[in-house]
Structures are given as structure tokens and as C-alpha cells.
């Protein structure tokens, strides 16, 4: 296996790029460092490409290790032939690898192994090869009472178990059956009757069928969740009718069972039927595992992109901020932090029922505003949020001289932070209920710096996040956080241990040592001081230095993203233009005529020179967007306040593969279906919206009981048009799929040339993917949108 060639093809890059990246990773370089400071070596691979490469590299190396383990196991059994070894080394999928290993895999005692130990293998082989012999007569010679085979029926049953294993463990046959089943399989879900009343949230899947190939990730995870919670039964059918004839016929053909008049025909046909049941059970497990993994991968990718958007959301900046953690009966928790996030004061006010101390609460907030001079108010978006918004609005109305701006902030994960060990260490004398208000205030000032203190998956921006492999989720999200932290850069003199931990090349121990030294000796004045930190060696310094910033240090370059290894290059540029670094930073236009090629050499490539010049033009710039706020509509506080056609402003809270959820201030996010995101066809919602984005939406429909809200960003749409738009979108997707499928030659005879067998496997496509009782089918004619999409795809 040539791992470099495979990765280059999968990632869509040149072999030399893959080779260079792998060498850097193996040498201890981190993805953020390679993406930012080793562009020449990899020919500009970005962090997304490098993360995919890193993931595939680990998978392929694990796969290679599994190959070697299997080869060693078979060799120890003395059964490794040259052809088998060649087949094992040639395979590139784990499924095929395990199929090849199946006959040689150590097994627990089974009916087939007991039969083989009783000497029934020759009978099984004889019946398979000499089908004209009478099974009952042939079985007499193999009676073995001592081994539990005292009569003819038990002997024939034992031989049949051996034959079933023979069919179920042939790798090539399994692959053929797998391919055929994948082409026609249907996922079917039914409600558990006695739990129907409790299973209302899964009612879309009470009687649901869809082609295996077309099941989207969110539906797969929903069905699997319903199954795990005991509300649904989910199974795999051979086709919409559940007709196994074609598959049984293929097994019969493998046994060369064609003569219906042969004495052993009924026995062997029954063997094929039993074998298919066993094989289907295994293939169902494999298919569902594959479906789950694919769905999990997509769900984790969605979570990661949403998390990235939140982490890179616009910071409000260094302004004193009031944090309000809303509550009704328990009161609104209050925390004031200064411009650097340092806690100044806390309180609890009770403006809502049952206390109803409205004016008293406004007075308390006014006193805090006058005392601490805060300009921003961050309001958590949990229970009581809209009521607390009214309180703040009344505060501004009664005290117009106060220059206040209020913003509703996601409080996801705030309670997790409040009860964490970190929060206890940071605020040992502050009640747990008040720590959340501090977090809410700080995440408005700098979302990235505050959210890194919370376990990524607790931030709650995932699609079915609790249904995916938690280890895979954790690994993926940690990488997202690392990329975001290093993309923005970190002020070493203000960063928390948690933020420093995500810097390339550092770990928690190193980060702790940095903060200890900072607390003991004062602020760092230059990057070279990092080399004196316990645990930070040359490699760690190389990886971390460029991402750690020291504003107002002894060397102005230390406040920029220019890596210390490029300081000599800066000196060459300064000498060429006869300017000091201070003069360049004060008037970066002096760099306008500098050509990177003039300074490129064996040490610094043209790309590095260009990056350094760009950084000198805007040193230490924050790549995050400018700060903006959304305004929720007054009087719309709950779902029942909504009306069809109402136009609202909201914040995108979560982007999924089927659309985007938008917080419109009613304690339940509404869904903008992918078909309603824009006037044009949208194949990926993330191309249109991202988490944290402020959008205008129109209410199409809402269900108070089921807490479902349907929204559109196509503001000219009327509610009755929504269904038509979704149907047009579905038709366009269908056209796209058909256009992307390779052309197949016409079969020479009635059956399918792909070898799907006979007996009704190839059913009309119109029956695939129907949700019985839920979907009414697809439009018979291609819509204008679908036709336009088809035309665009062909051109």
C-alpha cells in the first residue's frame, strides 16, 4: 500500500505535497504551524486540507497495522497462501479486509464447529458436489451419537450449518451480495405499538421507508436514536417489497444448484434460504454501521463548522460589561466585569414573578452602571431572556443618559462552566449560580477566549451531537478549537491557561508554567523569554512562537504573526528601504513597491516573503469580523405570539445539512429549510449562512404543541408556497444525482448486468424513498428550478 499516493488522490493534491506534509507531521510539526509557516514545503496546503490529510494518514496507518495483524494470524495457522496474501495486501477497505479474514478468524464454539468436530464436513462437501444423492441416505454413514448426532435429521442439520458457514464466509460471494444489496436496499422503521403515545417526537418514522443510498445523516441518526430509546424498530429490507428471491438465487448459483429434480435440491435450496438470513443479518449490521459512521461524520463536520463560526464570532472588545443570567423564580444573576474580563461585582435581582421587584431591579442596575461605567449588557438567551430584555429596555428608557447597548448572547455551556473545577479555582468565593453571569459577560467581550474554557461539545451547536461517537466528536472539536485559536493568535500576557493550552506546540503543563511565570515576574516583554519556561524546548518554541503575541513589548515584531525565524528577513527588507521597524509600522505604505521575489532565497521562499510583507502592513490584525447585534421583535416572546407571514430578525444558532436553525427570541429555534435559504438553488447551507449570523426571516408555519417553527429567508414567499419550493428543491436534487451518475451500458438481456440476480430485485425506482403516510410522492414533471439546475450541471 502506497499511503502517500492514496492520500494525495483522496485529498486532491500532488504527491509531493502529501509527502512533504507527512514528513512535517512525523517530525512533530502541528497543523496550524504547517499551514501558516511551511507554505513553501507543502505548496500552500491550508488547515482544512491538512486536517483531512492528518485524519486519513492515521486511518491508513491503522488499516496497515490491521492488515499485518491478520496476515500474522493466518500465517500462524499455516493457512496463508500466496494468493490470499496478495488479496489481503491489495484490499483498501476495512470491510473487504474483514471479509477475507472471516474464514480464518478464531471462532467461539458454534453449531458448525461442533458439526465439523463430529466429522460432518465430508458429508456437507459431498452433498454440495454430488447433488443427485439422497441426503437422508447419505447421512446414515455419519451418525455419531457420542458427539450429539444420533439420528439422520440431526446429522443433516449439522451438515447444513457447515454449508451455511461455507456460503457466509466466502469473501468474493459476500462482496457481490454486498454490492447488489447496496443498490436496492431499503431502510424501514416502524413504531413500537405499545410505546406509540410516548414516541410522538418520532412520528415521522412510525411507518417510514427510504432507499439505503439516499438516507440523509439527520434521518439516519433520528431513526437510530428512536431505536436506542425503544420507540422504533429499524431494519434493512432487500428492496421495498422485502423480496429475497434474487439473493437466494445467487447463493444457489454459487452452489451450482440448477437441477430442480436433483435429490438434494430441496435440502440445498433450504440451506441457501437459511444462509441468506444469516448473511442479511450480518450485512444489516455492516450497512447500519456504515450508515451510522457516515451520518456521524457529517454530524461532527456540521458541529465543527458551527463551533468554528461561534469561536470566530465578532468580539465586542475591551469594554466593561454587565452579564445577566436570566431566571424567573430564582431571580436574574448579575455580574460586572472590567474591560479585561476581571470580575468587579455580583448581585441577584428579582424583577419577575413571584417577587415582581421591577423598579427595585432597575434601580440596582442603574447604580451598578453609574459605579462601574459599563457600556455593554450581555443577556443570556435562556428562560426569562425576553422578560429580562424588557427590563433592560426599561432601564435605558428611564436612564437615557446611560450609554448602554444590550445584546442577547447564547448561554450554552455556561452552566457547565459554572460547575467546573476551573470556575471553582477562578471564583472560589462566588456562588455557582453567579459564575454563569460572568461567563455570559465575557463571551460577549471575546467569544473565543471565554468559550475555550468550556468543553467544546457542551456549547451545544451540534446536529444530533449526543448520538455520535463521543471520542470522535471530542477529537474533531479539539482540532477545530486549535485551528481557531491559532488563526486569531493569543496575547501571552492576558491569556488564560485554557487558551494557551490550544496554542500550537503547547500543552496544559506548559501553559500553566507560562501563567505561573507571568504572575511571579510580571508581563513578558519578548518572545525569547519563552525559552526559559520549564518544558518549552526548541521544537515547542518553534511551533508556538508565531501564534503568541506580546503587544507593547521590546520588539514590535513580537506583537505580530511574523515568526522569529523570519526576523532576519524583516531586517533585510528594512535595510533595503532604509527604514526602521517603527517607521514601517507607522506608515506601511512604504512597503507597497516591495516585490517578494527580490528577497526570496534558499531560506525564505517567495510565499514566506509575501506573507511577512502583508503582516507588516497590518501587524497583529484580528481576522474576526466587526461586532454587530440583532434586535428581536417586541411583543414576540413565545411561540404562541408568532403569526404566519410575520417578518423577524434573528441569529443563526445552528447550521445543518438540511437547513439552518434561527433564534428569533421565542425560546425555540425555527428552521429555515435548505430550499428556503435563498432564491437560487443551494446545495450547501454553509455557503449561505453561518452560526452567529444575523438574518431576516419570515414565519411560514408553527406548531405550538410540537414546538416546531418553519421559517424562510425568501421574504417574498407566502406560506402556501413553502411546500412547492421544497418539492422543487427535491426534484432538483434528484436531477443532480442522476446527472452525476456514470452512464451504464444497456444490458444484453432482461436481467441487470451488474449481477443483481433474478427474482424481482430490480423494482421500480418510484417506490424508493417513500415515507408511507407522510410523503405524498415527488412531482411527476420537472419543475423550473430542477430544469434550470439540470441545464447548469450539463454546461
Structure description:
Among the domains are: 3-104, Arc Repressor Mutant, subunit A (Orthogonal Bundle), CATH 1.10.10.650; 186-237, no CATH class; 316-445, YqgF/RNase H-like domain (Nucleotidyltransferase, domain 5, 2-Layer Sandwich); 518-617, DNA polymerase, domain 1, CATH 1.10.150; 643-767, OB fold (Dihydrolipoamide Acetyltransferase, E2P), CATH 2.40.50.140. Residues 736-795 have low confidence and may be disordered. The longest helix is centred in the middle third of the chain and has 47 residues, at 265-311. The two termini are 38 Å apart. The strands form four sheets. Strands 6-5-4-7-8 form a five-stranded mixed β-sheet, with helices on both faces. Strands 11-12-13-15-14 form a five-stranded mixed β-barrel. The protein is 46% helix and 10% strand. It is globular, with a radius of gyration of 33 Å. With 795 residues, it is of the alpha/beta class.
Amino acid at each position: 500500500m502506497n499511503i502517500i499516493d492514496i492520500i494525495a488522490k483522496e485529498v486532491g493534491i500532488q504527491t509531493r505535497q502529501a509527502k512533504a506534509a507527512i514528513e512535517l507531521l512525523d517530525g512533530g510539526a502541528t497543523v496550524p504551524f504547517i499551514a501558516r509557516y511551511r507554505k513553501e514545503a507543502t505548496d500552500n496546503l491550508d488547515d482544512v486540507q491538512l486536517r483531512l490529510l492528518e485524519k486519513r494518514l492515521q486511518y491508513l496507518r491503522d488499516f496497515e497495522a490491521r492488515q499485518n495483524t491478520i496476515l500474522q494470524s493466518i500465517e500462524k495457522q499455516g493457512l496463508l497462501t500466496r494468493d490470499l496474501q496478495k488479496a489481503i495486501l491489495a484490499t483498501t477497505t476495512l470491510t473487504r479486509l474483514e471479509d477475507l479474514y472471516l474464514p480464518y478468524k478464531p471462532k467461539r464454539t458454534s453449531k458448525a464447529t461442533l458439526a465439523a468436530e463430529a466429522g460432518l464436513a465430508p458429508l456437507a462437501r459431498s452433498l454440495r458436489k454430488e447433488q443427485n444423492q439422497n441426503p437422508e441416505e447419505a447421512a446414515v454413514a455419519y451418525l455419531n451419537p457420542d458427539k450429539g448426532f444420533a439420528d439422520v435429521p440431526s446429522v443433516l442439520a449439522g451438515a447444513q450449518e457447515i454449508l451455511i458457514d461455507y456460503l457466509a464466509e466466502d469473501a468474493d460471494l459476500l462482496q457481490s451480495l454486498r454490492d447488489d444489496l447496496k443498490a436496492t436496499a431499503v431502510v424501514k422503521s416502524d413504531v413500537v405499538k405499545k410505546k406509540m403515545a410516548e414516541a410522538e417526537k418520532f412520528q415521522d418514522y412510525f411507518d417510514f421507508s427510504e432507499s439505503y443510498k439516499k438516507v440523509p445523516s439527520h434521518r439516519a441518526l433520528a431513526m437510530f436514536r428512536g431505536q436506542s430509546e425503544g420507540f422504533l424498530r429499524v431494519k434493512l429490507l432487500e428492496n421495498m417489497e422485502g423480496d429475497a428471491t434474487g439473493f437466494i438465487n445467487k447463493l444457489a448459483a454459487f452452489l451450482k444448484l440448477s437441477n430442480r429434480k436433483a435429490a438434494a435440491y430441496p435440502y440445498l435450496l433450504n440451506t441457501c434460504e437459511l444462509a441468506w438470513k444469516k448473511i442479511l443479518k450480518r450485512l444489516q449490521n455492516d450497512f447500519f454501521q456504515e450508515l451510522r459512521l457516515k451520518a456521524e461524520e457529517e454530524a461532527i463536520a456540521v458541529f465543527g463548522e458551527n463551533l468554528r463560526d461561534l469561536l470566530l464570532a465578532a468580539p465586542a472588545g475591551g469594554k466593561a460589561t454587565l452579564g445577566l443570567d436570566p431566571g424567573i423564580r430564582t431571580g436574574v444573576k448579575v455580574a460586572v466585569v472590567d474591560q479585561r474580563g476581571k470580575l468587579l461585582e455580583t448581585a441577584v435581582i428579582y424583577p419577575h414573578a413571584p417577587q415582581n421587584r421591577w423598579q427595585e431591579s432597575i434601580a440596582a442596575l442603574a447604580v451598578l452602571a453609574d459605579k462601574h461605567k459599563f457600556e455593554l449588557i450581555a443577556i443570556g438567551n435562556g428562560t426569562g431572556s425576553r422578560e429580562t430584555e424588557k427590563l433592560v429596555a426599561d432601564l435605558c428608557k428611564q436612564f437615557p443618559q446611560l450609554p448602554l447597548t444590550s445584546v442577547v448572547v447564547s448561554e450554552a455551556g455556561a452552566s457547565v462552566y459554572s460547575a467546573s473545577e476551573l470556575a471553582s479555582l477562578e471564583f472560589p468565593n462566588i456562588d455557582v449560580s453567579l459564575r454563569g453571569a460572568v461567563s455570559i459577560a465575557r463571551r460577549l467581550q471575546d467569544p473565543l477566549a471565554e468559550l475555550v474554557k468550556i468543553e467544546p461539545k457542551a456549547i451545544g451547536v451540534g446536529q444530533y451531537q449526543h448520538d455520535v461517537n463521543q471520542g470522535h466528536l471530542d477529537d474533531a472539536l479539539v482540532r477545530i478549537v486549535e485551528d481557531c485559536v491559532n488563526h486569531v493568535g493569543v496575547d501571552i500576557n492576558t491569556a488564560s491557561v485554557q487558551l494557551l493550552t490550544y496554542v500550537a506546540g503547547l500543552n496544559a503543563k506548559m501553559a500553566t508554567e507560562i501563567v505561573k511565570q507571568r504572575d511571579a515576574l510580571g508581563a513578558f516583554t519578548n518572545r525569547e523569554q519563552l525559552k526559559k519556561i520549564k518544558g518549552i524546548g526548541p521544537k515547542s518554541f518553534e511551533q508556538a512562537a508565531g501564534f503568541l503575541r506580546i503587544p507593547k513589548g521590546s520588539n514590535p515584531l513580537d506583537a505580530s504573526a511574523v515568526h522569529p525565524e523570519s526576523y532576519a528577513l524583516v531586517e533585510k527588507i528594512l535595510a533595503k528601504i532604509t527604514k526602521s521597524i517603527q517607521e514601517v509600522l507607522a506608515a506601511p505604505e512604504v512597503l507597497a513597491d516591495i516585490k517578494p521575489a527580490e528577497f526570496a532565497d534558499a531560506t525564505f521562499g517567495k510565499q514566506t516573503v509575501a506573507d511577512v510583507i502583508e503582516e507588516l502592513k497590518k501587524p497583529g490584525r484580528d481576522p474576526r469580523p466587526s461586532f454587530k447585534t440583532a434586535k428581536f421583535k417586541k411583543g414576540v416572546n413565545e411561540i404562541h405570539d408568532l403569526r404566519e407571514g410575520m417578518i423577524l430578525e434573528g441569529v443563526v444558532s445552528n447550521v445543518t445539512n438540511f437547513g439552518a436553525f434561527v433564534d428569533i427570541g421565542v425560546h425555540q429555534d425555527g428552521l429555515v429549510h435548505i430550499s428556503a435559504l435563498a432564491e437560487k438553488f443551494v446545495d450547501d447551507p454553509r455557503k449561505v449562512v453561518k452560526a452567529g449570523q444575523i438574518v431576516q426571516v419570515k414565519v411560514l408555519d408553527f406548531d405550538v404543541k410540537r414546538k416546531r417553527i418553519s421559517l424562510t429567508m425568501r421574504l417574498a414567499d407566502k406560506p402556501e408556497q413553502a411546500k412547492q419550493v421544497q418539492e422543487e428543491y427535491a426534484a432538483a436534487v434528484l436531477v443532480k444525482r442522476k446527472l452525476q451518475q456514470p452512464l451504464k451500458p444497456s444490458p444484453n438481456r432482461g436481467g441487470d448486468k451488474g449481477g443483481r440476480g433474478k427474482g424481482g430485485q430490480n423494482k421500480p425506482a418510484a417506490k424508493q424513498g417513500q415515507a408511507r403516510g407522510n410523503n405524498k410522492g415527488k412531482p411527476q414533471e420537472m419543475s423550473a428550478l430542477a430544469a434550470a439546475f439540470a441545464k447548469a450541471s450539463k454546461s
